[in-house]
C-alpha cells in the first residue's frame, strides 16, 4: 500500500508527484474552460431574457443548450482566445498554489527591471530573426511584395485593424510560454531530478521533452509536415533556452510574440499553417523552393526559418553572457520550492 502511495505522493515534499501535477493541471484547465463558458452563456441568455430578446418558454431544460449556442453566435462577440487565456492563467495559478506549492511568479514571471529588459530583447530578437528570413527571400527573388498597409476591411482604419491581431498574438505568446515552458518544463525538470541525473541533466531533458510536446501539438495544424513539426520543436528549443538560462519567461514570451506578429502582420505570411489576414504592413507572395521558404504552412516549414532559430539560440547565449556575466542553467527550475520541502527536526 505504501508503494502505491509513493507513486502518487512525495512524502518528503508533501505534495503530488510531478507527473500527476501535469495531468491535473490539464484537468483543471478543462474544468475552468467549461465553467467560464457556461457562466458567460448563462449571463448572455439572462440578458436576452431581460431585454425581451428571448422568451421564458425557450429557457427550459431541453432547449437551454440550443439557446446558449444561438446567443453565443449572435451576441457573444468576445474572442475565444481570451476565454482560453483566462482559463490557462487561472488553471496554472490554482495548480501552482494547490498542487505545486509554488508561487505564480516562480513560473518565470518575476516582473522586475531585469525581466522587462530581457522581454525587450526577446521582442527585438523575434522580429529580427523573421525579418532576416524575409530579407534573404527578397534578395533571392523568392518573395514578391504585392501591396502595403493592407486591411481585411478597407473601411476600417489600418491602425485599428492591426490592433486586433497584435492583442491576439500577445495573448498567444503569453499563454503558450506560460504553459509549455513555465509550467510543463518546470514540472518535468522536477520529475527528472534524480540523483544520477542531477538538476542540470533534468533541465536539459525537460527542455527536450517539452519541445517535443510543443512540436507534436503543432503537428495537427493545417498543412503540417515533418519539416514543420521539426521546426516547431526547434521553436520550443529556442524559447526553452531563454527560460533555462535566465529562469524567467521574459525572453521566450517576447520572442514568441514578435516572431508570430512579424510573420503574419508585417510580412503577410502564414503562421504555423494559419492565415492571420486582419491586416498586414506588406502583402506578399512566395514563389521560392518550398524546402527553403516553406509551403502553405508558412516560413516555419522551410530550412531558412530553422537556420534563423539556430542563429537565435546563439544570440540568446551571447545576450545572457553580456547581461549576467555567465551562461549557465538555472538549477532552481528543477528544485522543489522551499515551502514544499519537509525540514528535518532540529
Any idea what the shape is? globular
What share of the residues does DSSP label as strand, in percent?
5-15%
Largest sheet: 2 strands, antiparallel
Structural class: mainly alpha
How much helix, percentage-wise, in residues? 55-70%
Low-confidence stretches: 61-78, 341-346
Instruction: State the total count of DSSP E strands.
Output: 4
The number of helical runs is: 12
Number of domains: 2
Strand order of the largest sheet: 1-2
Mean pLDDT: 86
Radius of gyration: 23 Å
Compute the separation of the termini in Å. Answer: 30 Å
SSE run: HEEHHHHEHHHHHEHH
Report what the structure shows.
By secondary structure, the chain is mainly alpha-helical. It is 63% helix and 6% strand. The chain contains 12 helices and 4 strands; from the N terminus they run H-E-E-H-H-H-H-E-H-H-H-H-H-E-H-H. The strands form 2 sheets. It has a two-stranded antiparallel ribbon with strand order 1-2. A hairpin with a 4-residue loop joins strand 1 and strand 2. The longest helix is centred in the N-terminal third of the chain and has 33 residues. The two termini are 30 Å apart.
Amino acid at each position: 500500500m505504501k508503494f502505491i502511495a509513493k507513486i502518487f505522493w512525495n512524502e518528503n515534499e508533501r505534495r503530488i508527484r510531478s507527473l500527476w501535477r501535469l495531468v491535473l493541471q490539464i484537468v483543471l484547465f478543462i474544468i475552468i474552460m467549461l465553467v467560464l463558458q457556461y457562466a458567460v452563456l448563462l449571463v448572455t441568455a439572462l440578458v436576452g431574457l431581460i431585454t425581451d430578446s428571448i422568451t421564458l418558454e425557450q429557457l427550459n431544460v431541453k432547449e437551454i443548450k440550443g439557446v446558449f449556442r444561438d446567443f453565443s453566435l449572435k451576441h457573444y462577440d468576445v474572442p475565444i482566445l481570451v476565454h482560453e487565456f483566462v482559463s490557462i492563467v487561472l488553471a496554472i495559478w490554482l495548480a501552482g498554489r494547490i498542487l505545486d506549492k509554488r508561487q505564480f511568479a516562480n513560473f518565470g514571471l518575476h516582473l522586475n527591471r531585469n525581466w522587462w529588459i530581457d522581454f525587450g530583447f526577446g521582442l527585438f530578437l523575434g522580429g529580427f530573426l523573421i525579418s532576416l528570413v524575409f530579407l534573404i527571400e527578397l534578395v533571392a527573388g523568392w518573395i514578391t511584395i504585392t501591396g502595403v498597409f493592407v486591411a481585411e476591411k478597407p473601411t476600417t482604419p489600418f491602425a485599428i485593424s492591426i490592433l486586433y491581431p497584435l492583442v491576439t498574438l500577445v495573448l498567444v505568446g503569453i499563454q503558450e510560454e506560460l504553459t509549455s515552458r513555465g509550467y510543463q518544463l518546470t514540472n518535468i525538470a522536477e520529475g527528472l531530478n534524480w540523483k544520477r541525473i542531477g538538476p542540470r541533466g533534468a533541465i536539459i531533458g525537460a527542455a527536450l521533452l517539452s519541445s517535443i510536446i510543443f512540436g507534436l501539438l503543432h503537428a495537427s495544424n493545417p498543412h503540417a509536415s515533418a519539416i514543420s513539426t521539426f521546426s516547431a520543436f526547434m521553436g520550443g528549443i529556442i524559447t526553452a533556452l531563454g527560460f533555462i538560462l535566465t529562469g524567467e519567461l521574459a525572453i521566450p514570451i517576447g520572442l514568441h510574440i514578435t516572431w508570430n506578429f512579424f510573420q503574419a502582420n508585417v510580412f503577410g505570411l502564414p503562421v504555423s499553417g494559419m492565415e492571420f489576414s486582419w491586416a498586414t504592413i506588406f502583402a506578399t507572395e512566395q514563389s521560392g523552393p518550398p524546402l527553403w521558404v516553406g509551403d502553405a504552412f508558412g516560413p516555419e516549414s522551410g530550412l531558412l526559418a530553422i537556420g534563423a532559430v539556430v542563429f537565435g539560440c546563439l544570440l540568446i547565449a551571447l545576450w545572457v553572457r553580456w547581461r549576467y556575466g555567465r551562461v549557465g542553467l538555472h538549477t532552481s527550475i528543477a528544485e522543489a520550492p522551499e515551502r514544499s520541502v519537509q525540514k528535518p527536526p532540529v
